[in-house]
Amino acid sequence: MIFNSLNFFVFLPVVFLGYWLLFKNKRKSQNIFILIASYFFYGIWDWRFLFLIMASTIVDFIVGQRIYDSDQQKHKKKWLWISILFNISLLGFFKYYNFFIDSWVDFTSILGYQIGSSWTLQIILPVGISFYTFQTMSYSLDIYYKRLVPTKDFIAFSAFVSFFPQLVAGPIERASNLLSQITNTRKFDYTQCTDGMKLIVWGLFKKVVIADAIAPIVDDVFANYMDYPASTLLLGICLFSFQVYSDFSGYSDIAIGTAKLFGIELMSNFKFPNFSRNVAEYWQRWHVSLSTWFRHYVYIPLGGSRVSTMKSIRNISIIFLVSGFWHGANWTFIVWGAIHALFYIPVFLMGRNRIYMNTVVAQNSWLPSIKEVLQIMLTFSLVTFSRIFFRSESITDAFNFIKQLCTNFRFEMYEHPLGYRMIDYFILLGLFTIYEFIIRKDERSPFKFKSKYIRFLMYTIVILAMLLFYDDRIDRSFIYFQF
User: Fold this and answer.
1) 337 in the Ramachandran plot: left (φ > 0), alpha (ψ -120 to 50) or beta?
2) Other Cβ atoms closer than 10 A to 354
3) Contact yes or no for 343/382 (Cβ under 8 A)
4) What is the pTM of this model?
């Protein structure tokens, strides 16, 4: 079930009404109900993969208690490794098995041995496995590092692992935030619910009007890049940056908004990354839940930046390579991660990786300075270039795309594959960027205006735009479902 489907718009009101009308102020009943709803939500895709979620839930629930009860450090470490190896094994088999087999076959063929590809399997990637395995591992890790006391409420823990608003594509929550809310009594809050509905509407706008509308253009450019000049390829990669941002941040907005309807506050996952002034700030604003996960559980344990410069560079490289590999079983993602490491390391060496912590572009002004505009343009260009590898099917395609971009210096007007006017898209993206700049100080309040008339106008524009741009010929699935 996906957020932008008719099924979800039937499912959500039913669950919402049952949650508050039938089980109001009954925490245990609410948790059982939300657990059943979450399993149903996920089982619509493939009920068989529910057993993977259940297995990960059971293992980490037991492991967490064993780590906490163990008197000796070696026993705590043993149980922690059980959690890590179990979850990584699940992720490794379903997501990376064929990648390793294919890579081994390619390597041996270079050495002159032909072993064939009979070891590859027809494995279906379970939706959301990269997200919920990291979430359950964080629970065991937090107990091991004495940041958390394990819960004895198995139903609450199961609801934490499978909470449907963020089950499929995050945010990747830590137990200290999400589980602590699930184990406490929740009361209906009208303002929280209306704020949630506003985020849902805004997230759907970004998905339907921005991401889905430009998806056919991006698909066409990347599928036929050898037939297009540099001007079209440049258009394609720029539009892909808008597409992947609007698609993923739109999902996160809907997830956060949906959670609010049930009295739950999820962490912000996107903080207007397109206005970042360097790559370090970009990674503080893009996919925040994953970035913080790697920082807390990989980067800091490796020593972070409190070690020698060379070791810090090593740690940064590891983080970006692992982050790239997390995104998919393809060398393109690893190269994408390596490129971001190369972009980040000079910023780190110049000591500029923490100068834009919790700041906003042109904080005390309506307009950014010329310096800020140039910084934003440079950062956007670097990030967009890296996405050639993120979007390409293979390393060969990525390098051929770059070669075509750098050699075929022709300009020609691009014709939309579905016959629409391109000028409409340029106007749309321009207005979208301006609007996001206006609301940039609060990513959780997209319609926060003092005037009720302005709010009503924005609601009307957003809803009409969704009706106008909706096209049933376009694939409506979310990009990050494949991760």
Assistant:
1) alpha
2) 12
3) yes
4) 0.91
Looking at 244-390, which runs of residues are DSSP E strands? none
In this predicted model, what pLDDT tens digit does every residue of 313-349 receive, in sequence order? 999 999 999 999 888 878 999 999 999 999 999 999 9
Distance in angstroms (rounded) separating the CA atoms of residues 80 and 99: 27
Is the Cα torsion angle 435, 441, 443, 449 positive or negative in sign?
negative
Half-sphere exposure of 380 (CA within 13 A, CB side): 19
CA distance readout (Å), 450 to 14, 27, 426? 33, 36, 29
Gyration radius (Cα) of the chain, Å: 23
Q: In this structure, what DSSP letter does residue 149 have? A: P
146-160 burial, b at 16+ Cβ within 10 Å, e below that, comes to: eebebbebebbbbbb
The type of residue at 184 is N
Annotation marks residue 327 as catalytic:
yes
The kind and range of the H/E element at 93 are none
State the Cα–Cα distance between residues 283 and 292, nearest whole angstrom.
9
Active-site entry in 75, 327, 340, 416: 327
Instruction: Please name which of 202, 252, 197 lies closest in space to residue 13, comparing C-alpha atoms.
Output: 197
Kindly report the backbone phi and psi dihedral angles of residue 157, in degrees, each rounded to the nearest multiple of 5, phi listed first. Answer: -65, -40
Which residues, 6+ apart, have CB-to-CB distance to 10 below 8 Å?
Answer: none
What pLDDT was estimated at residue 112?
62
CB atoms within 10 A of CB 75: 13
- Please give the structure tokens belonging to residue 249: 């941040």
- Amino acid sitting at position 1: M
Pair of tokens at residue 160: 């934490």
Q: Quote the mean pLDDT of the chain.
A: 89
Residue 346 has a pLDDT of: 95
Structure tokens at 96: 């990376």
pLDDT, tens digit, 9 for 90 and up, residues 248-290? 999 999 999 999 999 999 999 999 999 999 999 999 999 999 9
Count of other CB atoms within 10 angstroms of residue 49: 18
Q: With a cut of 60, say whether residue 121 has pLDDT above it.
A: no
